[in-house]
Fold this protein.
Amino acid sequence: MSQEEPVYPVHTEIQEKASIKSLDQYREIYQRSIHEPDHFWAKYAARLEWFYPYTHVQQCDMKRAVFRWFSGGKLNASFNCIDRHLDKLGDKPAIIWEADEPGSGHTITYSELHEHVCRAANVLRQFDIKKGDRVILYLPMIPELAYMMLACARIGAIHSIVFAGFSADSVRDRILDCQAKMVITADEGLRGGKKIPLKSIVDSALRGVDCVKSVLIAQRTFAEIPLVPGRDHLLNQEMKRQRPECPAEWMDAEDPLFILYTSGSTGKPKGLLHTTGGYMTYVAATHHHVFDYRPGDVYFCAADIGWITGHSYIIYGPLANGATTVMFESTPLYPNPSRYWETIERLKVNIFYTAPTAIRALAREGESHVLKHDRSSLRVLGTVGEPINPEAWEWYYKVVGESRCALVDTWWQTETGGIMITPLPGVTDLKPGSATRPFFGIQPILMDENAKPITSQEATGHLCLARPWPGMARTIYGDHERYVQTYFAPYPGYYFTGDGCRRDKDGFYWITGRVDDVLNVSGHRLGTAEIEAAINGVFQVAESAVIGYPHDIKGQGIFAFVILNTEAEDLSQEDLVSAIREECRNRIGKLARPDKILIVPGLPKTRSGKIMRRILRKIAEGEYKNLGNLTTLADPDVVDFIIDAHKTMDRQT
Ligand code: WT7
């Protein structure tokens, strides 16, 4: 990279009051966090309230992939998010629910949250949910989702939230994988004025499933829904009947808090398991420092709780810190592209956290939507989910943040539980597109092609992490071997992230994207194998190969190359394409529908049958020359056929 790369220095007004005030201070704390990790993390664990002290800060083994933090210590996540704040913050807003129609939501104070969560926890108990039982939450962004997560945590049940955009098949797969005993859903979701028939999707998901004993239904739209006698119950009615007090279970620090499914490079999603003490310590510490959270701030993370961002930085992190957190039900474009900025003005938001895909979609709508709203309350802006292109970064920084806010580009993953590489508002000079430096206790390592750590400052390689941290996922639920194979086998002694990365002369990290068969579409993770399995479910399809290609708004678009069965002639190309898109929607969800589908006579494969995706990626980008070495292909002619098909497609679109 050139020397002229712009650098935006830390703002002194932010620096003066920030929790970490200079690069020197950061360096000193960072060194301590690496050299005396136990001492360092003990200090952050002490910010939580423990019922009983732990015996060891950590017992971790990167080689065997065994990780225990604060074990023997007893605490409760729900208690830490609610009860311990009641004395001082009882009347303070815990959650501001920003409903789909602007301004139609309401505020829930810490005392009210306590009452709702206790009632909800008693409902779970009434339906025989016990410590360790799995509960699926398939809910829109309504307060009941927060209540039910915290209610599960309160009694030690393990929640597994399924994003409300996933299909019935996806819900069923997750229910079966974790053998859930209960599903909690809503009559309908409401997003951008559109209704999503959640209860009816759950009914389909539960066909033939016998582990689920009861279904609780929150009422969002009050649509008429059929109730299955003995199985289905209305959540609000049940909550009303219960007492507003429920003692919090003493959980071991290593007891599970939740399972969250995410896509990997095989067809089957992985249920990442997060535990209690380390996770809570990590999300509270990162929420505090990365966003420079200050008491009284209104904090707005616009993610969905169905993803890890929402778990860690709408609910657990902010509430552990006694913050006021905004829960946003709508979309960035509803009812118009001013929605975020209008909400920020109305709620006087100080910290705003969103995704590059939303920023790009809004930048395209023009500045006027931003400028007509007062954003003077804003101090820190954040982004997460995918690499942010410098143009989108600059727009966010200059137009939204008036060049006076700190901008934190936070790199992390479902597996890491919390933010790993990130600027700190009072510390880090910013370079658009770089996630900058590691958080305390985090040691990034770049690996070369021979699986050796690169020691030079300037380097490009596969991103690994050399030490354990409290927030890391402990296993893949029910499949520890897959956990070991995916994250610890590729580089023994290190955690492998699946991302490529560059380190520049100043030691800044630049994430370049996934190096495995995982796509990042609008910040959502999808496995190519998962999409291919769905496409191959269409009767006329013989085989398919899915790759990502650069997409202006989504970051990556989904491109499917499809080979038909010989007996499949009777469908028109158009019908086939819609059948394939429909199948992806049914098997996975709307977000998995391919943007482009190309019917091809064959796929570029090696003699051993491996699809050479590198070639497909180039063709998808319209790069027909410089395809690299084609001599290892079983049938090199197939490449010309695919190029011709792609040229024809490009002419048509
Ligand atoms: C993958 C993790 C972390 C919550 C949302 C996504 C990509 C995430 C960044 C960033 C560049 C990023 C990586 C990562 N990613 N944040 N700031 N810059 N890439 O969680 O679904 O687990 O996906 O998202 O590729 O591995 P996820």
Q: What stands out?
A: Residues 262, 307-309, 384-387, 409-414, 435, 497-499, 511, 513-514, 520, 523, 525 surround WT7 (CB under 6 Å). The chain has 21 helices and 30 strands. Residues 12-499 form a domain with the Rossmann fold fold (CATH 3.40.50.12780). The longest helix spans residues 110-126.
